[in-house]
Amino acid sequence: MLEKIVALAILILSILTVQPMLAAEDVTESTPARIAPAIGISSTPLSVGYRMSLSDHYSIDLLLHVPIYVSSSVDGGEELSGFEFGGLIGYYIPLRLEENVAFVIRPQVDFAYLMQSGELGSGDDIDRNVLKIRPGAFAGIEVFMEEIGIPDLNVQLGVTVGTEYTSESYSAASIDIESSSFKGPIIDSSPFGATVGIWWYF
Prior knowledge:
The termini are far apart. The longest helix is centred in the first third of the chain and has 21 residues. It contains 1 helix and 10 strands; from the N terminus they run H-E-E-E-E-E-E-E-E-E-E. It has an 8-stranded antiparallel barrel. By secondary structure, it is mainly β.
């Protein structure tokens, strides 16, 4: 597992190292500058966020997942319920700029924390906590909507892929159980897959 984490870290570092050579200036001189901050909404998972714009269309994206209610059962048939919270931080890199279209990649780290509780048949409480850390990347296009007369609005279309490290803990009566797992690279699961976003610059 450690070898996979190291390999992923090397891949992300390589992308950040070579991105100045890959990034292209806007030769059309018609794509509007995006130097203001932005607020947005994104799918996979559903999140709301804030974009801190840097020079030459680069930015840092910060998103918070919309909390979700999760109900599940354990081996003994007891029901657990609770909420999952999470967020994402990513570095947005334009690889190529065409007229009102940017081809982009965003290395990112997504995390989620699930807190559930319930009651055993004996009356004892049971708690479950799950931490998920998901390094990965979004790749796709971002369309500048000036093309159709809507200023200061970008639409993001692409796919998100990544890996997932999970740490779980159960506590019931005097019993504590902890476990961890690693998956990757994965796509088409809850936090990964086709991604759509909208960003409004102000």
